[in-house]
Amino acid sequence: GTTWKEFIRTHMDVLVATDFFTAEVWTPKGLVTYYVLFFIKLATREVHLAGITPSPDETWMKQVARNLTMPDWGFLSGCRYLIHDRDSKFCEAFRQIVRSAGVKPLALPAHSPNLNAFAERFVRTAKEECVERFILFGERSLRHVFENFIDHYHEERNHQGRENKIPSPTPEDRIGCAEGPISCRERLGGSLKFYSRRVA
To answer: What is the pLDDT of residue 200?
Structure first.
């Protein structure tokens, strides 16, 4: 009888969501679609880039699962539930490795993107604020752009869902302070900017 909203609110601290999004990348062979797999902790909004590949087959997914479930430092450490859609890339072998680490994979009903709203919102943010602004050449270019965006997302971007707080501001930034010199930090040639007062 528990609603999905109540389940999310009750288990927020032990929930991780995952999803893929695609990016078109120019390569020597022409335009290639790359798949970006990420995971996001719902409570903290911490995002982990699990991998980028043009071929997310079962072997690749199994290796991702092993990396995520490594004792002590795997991203799923301390997690109890993993939310994902019914994309066939989340194969049974992937789910079994996750399950063996004590994490329960929850496959959402078909055609229900709102049930994975945190991951869906991150995809929209990453594409609109960063990825779609660039012409990408090769996997290395895509990885560079996306990793810079994740650093910006963690250290500089306000999150409305967390009362406009920055998840992991750098120590030298004086967040919310009304005094001191203002500085601008840029990433990706100025596509991402962050203004803050600096510690003297």
So the answer is: 58
**Three-class DSSP labels, 45-101:** CCEEEEEEECCCCHHHHHHHHHHHCCCCCCCCCCCCEEEECCCCCCCHHHHHHHHHC
pTM of the model: 0.90
Give pLDDT tens digits for 136-174. Answer: 999 999 999 999 999 999 988 888 777 778 888 777 766
- In sequence order, the β-bridge partners of residue 130 are none
> Which residue has 């679609």 as its token pair?
33
Q: In angstroms, rounded to a whole number, what is the distance separating the alpha carbons of residues 41 and 12? A: 8
Q: From CA 43, how far away is CA 142, in angstroms rounded?
A: 27
Does 69 have pLDDT greater than 80?
A: yes
The SS3 call for residue 138 is helix
**Helix or strand or coil: residue 120?**
helix
Rounded (10°) CA dihedral 192, 196, 199, 200: 100
- Per-residue pLDDT, 171: 73
Angstrom distances, CA of residue 83 to CA of 14, 117, 129, 170, 188 = 11, 10, 25, 30, 31
Residue with tokens 């990885």: 143
Q: Is 47 exposed, middle or buried (0-12, 13-18, 19+ CB in 10 A)?
A: buried
C-alpha–C-alpha distance, residues 45 and 153, integer Å: 9
Separation CA 95–CA 93 (nearest Å): 5
